[in-house]
Structures
1.
Amino acid sequence: MKEIVALCMFMIVGGEFELKEHLYVPDGMGKCLQMKRESERNTNPERIKFMCGNVMAQMSEDGKHILAIAKKDD
């Protein structure tokens, strides 16, 4: 696993937010925050939340796709 920047989408499921999707952002935190702002403008903020963060991820062989993701231990 290696540390990457990811944009994570959380949706309300059963009254709690649950991680539903994640996207690898190779261009860094600035690009991730830009993507987060654009995504928030187009969704219902009461049901969907976006978050950028440094996470530990298992990447595909080509290094372009996330196979597994885990919260980074501080």
2.
Amino acid sequence: MMVLLNRELAEVCGIHAGDGYLRSFRNRKELDITGNMEERQYYDQHVIPLFNRVFGLKLVGKAYSKGTYGFISSSKEVANTLNLLGFPYGKKSKIVKVPISILESKDKSLYAGFLRGLFDTDGNLGFRKCYGKYTLFKTTRHHYPHITLTTISSHLAKDVSFMLSELKISHFVHVHTPKRLNESDSFQVIINGVERVERWMSLIGVKNFSKLSRYLIWKKFGFCPTNLTLMQREDILNGKIDIYSIGS
């Protein structure tokens, strides 16, 4: 079985790397893709239509009792395709990596597709204040943007760093070693600053509105307060909440 890669399938791979789980038992194979309930719009409007297009399915979203939202596919074609691309059945957190066929393609559109899928499911866009001798605005408002991709797989961190370098997006990798012996090292791929984040948005983009809403607020007001719900961010963008009344 040969897998023909395109940007949409590369994005599927990134989504699976972030939120997916492959299981196989007896003659049954399943793909489980779920995220936070706040991401329902992203799943209904982007993830599920994407999987339906790529694999010719008729998936619908579902809310699960554990407070997540997504879908379970019992299509053997989906499971076999992802497994053939290098994704294992069962737990993958420590060993997941970017499919070698994507890495070796030298195709920047495939890199961008994978990175968008991974960020939309497992990444973070945040904003920081500055400390020290800066303007009042910079010391009181969360204005400085940073994108963070966190994983406990050293392979995935290395692969992501490689693709970002190929896309000429400056970044660094921070390794965090926990104090507890039973906890794994984590690897943070971090993209700091306005120019670098804007390059990400230009080349890769964001489809998950839960994350995109933060970017849109920052673009409109020059800062984005922390610890807001998606509904609050939507109300800010729609003019229903005065952003200056809710702190920094």
